[in-house]
Amino acid sequence: MDFRIPFVFMLLIATATSLECYQCNSHQHHQCGDSIAARESMKQFIVTCNETQSLDENAPNPNIVAPFCHKIKMYIDGRESEVRVLRECSTARRPTANNETCYKVLGEEYEVVACQCDEDLCNGAARRTLHSGALLLAVAAVVFRSLNSMA
Predict the structure, then answer these.
(1) Burial class of residue 33, CB neighbours in 10 A (0-12, 13-18, 19+)
(2) What are the pLDDT digits (tens) for 67-98?
């Protein structure tokens, strides 16, 4: 029996899963902030993002816009003491110079640092983890290689 077909099918299913992001506001939920204590209680804010209809007729598929995760950190009155964090799913991607993932907006009474990302739960606190899709692909490659060596 050829074991490669189920593995390819499993990879196709894994890549078709929806994007998950954190969705919360530190003004309403203190756990949404960037502290280490907040990181531990973020699971309650995980949501599955939905695709939306596009108003941009120049988009690759003008009817569907893929969601991404968005994290906005706002410094009120430019003070470190008054910081608000908003995490959400979004479909209104802001163009940035050199395809940077983050951008800064300065106002008279605030400073905003916003980041846009496309991986599951990438809008969490600063800690980075291995993307589950990359891990699945690596495991599938090892299994595929060992099956080929057996044949």
Answers:
(1) middle
(2) 999 999 999 886 667 899 999 999 888 988 88
* Gap between the Cα atoms of 133 and 13, Å rounded: 11
Residue 79: Cβ-neighbour burial (10 angstroms; 0-12, 13-18, 19+): exposed
- The C-alpha atoms of residue 4 and residue 148 are separated, in whole angstroms, by 9
Residues 74/110, Cβ–Cβ less than 8 Å: yes
Give the Cα separation of 100 and 88 in Å (integer): 19
Termini Cα distance of the chain: 11
